[in-house]
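Continuing the batch. This is chain 6 of the set; chains 1 through 5 are on the previous pages. Same settings as before, nothing changed between runs. Recording input and output for traceability.
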Amino acid sequence: MTIHLESQSDLEEAVHALIKRDPRLKPVLEVAGMPALRRREPGFTGLAHIVCGQQLSTASAAAIWGRLSAAFDPFDHDAVRRARTDRLGRLGLSAAKIKTLKHLAREINAQRLNLDVLAEEDADAAHHTLISLPGIGPWTADVYLLFCLGHGDAWPAGDLAVQEGIKIGLGLKERPTEKQMAPLAEPWRPLRGAAAHLWWSYYRAVKKREGVLAGQG
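Output for chain 6:
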């Protein structure tokens, strides 16, 4: 059964379950504090929002998304499917992102892709479904599963902050590679998504602490 992180209490329950299962995480939580649940809009809109922000600064991504969502009311897959490519380009989207969004819109319209169903699928299977789509890489897939669908077991193996957090928190000599992250996270199934939230919080806490110490030196 897939576990969903729909509320802060869901996440806290999952984190406590993780600590019971893996005592190594107790000192990690003590440093990190309880992570806050981050959620974004599901469905096509949520995925399109992530695609628009790929490889852009936060400010640039927000500006493009603002223009895009204001131009279409409602903003949905049908609106994008019907929209002229040059109009989407004038709103700030690159040719590659237009191609990705157009493909997603066609797949959803033809009922070959159901993004909501992914919330119930095995996390690895859902990840592979998404990365098989043009323009959807591992980072986009994992962010969508975690933050838009609240998938409790989604695991962002390629995320540098999670990798660095695990290196420090588990006392590893080197930062684990994306490939090495899979076996490291096995003890945390089916709550790897909650573990990711914990490692992000831990990474932020450790880096902030290191920054203060460096400033004092």
